[in-house]
Specification:
This protein has 460 residues and is of the alpha+beta class. It contains twelve helices and twelve strands. It has helices at residues 7-26, 34-78, 97-103, 122-132, 179-213, 215-251, 256-265, 268-300, 312-323, 347-364, 397-400, 420-430, and strands spanning 82-87, 92-95, 139-145, 151-162, 168-177, 308-311, 332-336, 342-345, 372-380, 383-390, 434-439, 445-452. The strands form three sheets. The chain has a five-stranded antiparallel sheet. Strand 1 and strand 2 (92-95) form a beta hairpin. The radius of gyration is 47 Å and the shape is elongated.
């Protein structure tokens, strides 16, 4: 608390004493002349005026002190952070209202008591002791003990305070309760986890939407080998019946002449000659069907394995195959890349990005006489650069800055929701790379995907 100054009051007392002294001297100055009396009266008036002036100054200073004190008290009461002032022995000298509200205690229960009584853990006592010994502790987290016995986490800033002689007089501790902050952190963390789940679902939904565009091509792709296998199986079934008839006749004891005639009539020799190609063709068709299904599963399944090294060249070839199966414009795609392009990450996600970029090129060149997409790859400063250049109309300059924004699309309503490039951008970014868009000087759109080169563990 601030105390009033008594300097002005002391001065007033001295002036009053001087006035009394002058009054006493009047009895001894009866013989003094009139001029001397006038001088004495002037001196008395001067002293009286000084007394009045000093009194006014004293009242003004006391009023200023009271205003300053009220200002400081209002500031302390308005602080949302807690404030504790201790002496060098650790006794609490002052606290603000925020500290009283936090602990649920009265001022009398805190002021004049050791700070250690308010701390609820050993760490707080250790920090406090280090501050008293003027060590380097400045920011710390301690737990105060509330009136109900609850431990309240508080982030404290501890600063020593010094007297006029430069000696440590105690500490000033300013802190902020962390209870609400912890709740906000947990809420933020929960929201982040929910956002990650939603993002994964969004990526998978976009992948399924892209897969839906390939259904017609996939149906045609599967129809050929399945039809081929089915035809061969029907032929093998007919051959089985004829072989059974021929073998039953042999085991039935028919004559050699009848056996030879039956063999010729059932075309046994021709069927024996056809068995090898039929079986080989059936196996080939089944293997082709298996490969198609595996490619589909690789593209549609939710990715669970991350950080695996894969060949980007093989992923690009597979993506081109699937993205152009149902291409209405019959686009011609050229691929000029190194035979092996090692990348670390999730092959299925990068496959999705390439399919999306190829599909965009197919849509952009729809209606052209000779649609073309050129894909080239090269190594640059520890990154694989994969460049997609089509001969379409390109991208409007005003839209280049928004091309990767969610739900931004240049396609007509019903042909796109504007998530493909946005999701692709995020996938490439999570793989440590970058996806950019521009217009080629010779015309057409230019998309560049940069991915870090994978480090072979055997070489590290």
């Amino acid at each position: 608390m601030i105390e009033k100054s008594d300097n002005t009051e002391s001065k007033t007392v001295r002036e009053s004493s001087a006035l009394v002294g002058l009054g006493g001297s009047l009895n001894q100055l009866n013989a003094v002349g009139e001029a001397d009396w006038i001088e004495v009266i002037h001196r008395m008036e001067e002293v009286y005026n000084n007394v009045l002036r000093y009194q006014v100054e004293l009242e003004e200073k006391n009023s200023a002190l009271e205003e300053a004190q009220q200002f400081i008290l209002s500031v302390l009461a308005a602080m949302s952070d807690i404030l504790i002032v201790c002496n060098r022995h650790g006794m609490v000298q002052e606290v603000n209202q925020a500290m009283l509200d936090l602990l649920g205690r009265s001022r009398a229960e805190i002021v004049g008591h050791p700070l250690l009584e308010l701390l609820g853990d050993d760490d707080g006592a250790r920090y406090f002791d280090a501050m008293l010994r003027e060590q380097s502790v400045r920011d710390c987290e301690v737990h105060f003990l509330s009136m109900s016995g609850t431990l309240l986490p508080v982030a404290l800033n501890c600063t020593s305070r010094y007297d006029v002689h430069g000696r440590q007089a105690g500490m000033v501790l300013v802190g902020r309760p962390l209870g609400e902050l912890h709740k906000a952190y947990h809420a933020l963390n929960r929201a982040h986890e929910e956002l990650k789940v939603a993002q994964q679902q969004l990526v998978h939904s976009e992948k399924m939407a892209s897969l839906g565009k390939l259904v017609a091509g996939v149906a045609h792709e599967l129809n050929n080998p399945i039809s081929f296998v089915l035809g061969n199986v029907h032929a093998l079934q007919r051959y089985r019946e004829r072989f059974s008839t021929y073998l039953d006749a042999i085991h039935g004891g028919v004559s050699p002449e009848e056996c030879a005639a039956l063999r010729q009539g059932l075309h046994i020799d021709r069927m024996l000659h056809d068995l090898g190609p039929l079986i080989e063709g059936t196996v080939e068709g089944a293997e082709r069907t298996r490969d198609i299904v595996q490619d589909l599963r690789r593209f549609s399944v939710i990715d669970r394995e991350e950080g695996k090294v894969f060949d980007l060249h093989e992923v690009v070839k597979s993506a081109i195959h699937w993205a152009t199966r149902d291409a209405k414009s019959m686009i011609r795609v050229t691929l000029n890349c190194p035979s092996v392009m090692g990348v670390s990450g999730t092959a299925g996600q990068i496959h999705q990005v390439v399919v999306n970029l190829v599909q965009n090129a197919v849509d952009a060149t729809d209606g052209l006489t000779s649609p073309l997409l050129e894909i080239s790859g090269n190594l640059d400063s520890g990154q694989w650069l994969l460049i997609f250049h089509d001969n379409g109309p390109g991208i409007e300059e005003a839209r280049l800055t928004s091309i990767f924004d969610p739900f931004f699309t240049t396609k007509p309503v019903g042909q796109g929701v504007g998530l493909g490039l946005s999701i692709s951008y995020g996938i490439v970014e999570r793989h440590g790379g970058k996806l950019s868009a521009a217009n080629h000087p010779s015309g057409g759109a230019l998309f560049t995907m940069a991915l870090p080169v994978a480090i072979d563990p055997s070489e590290s």
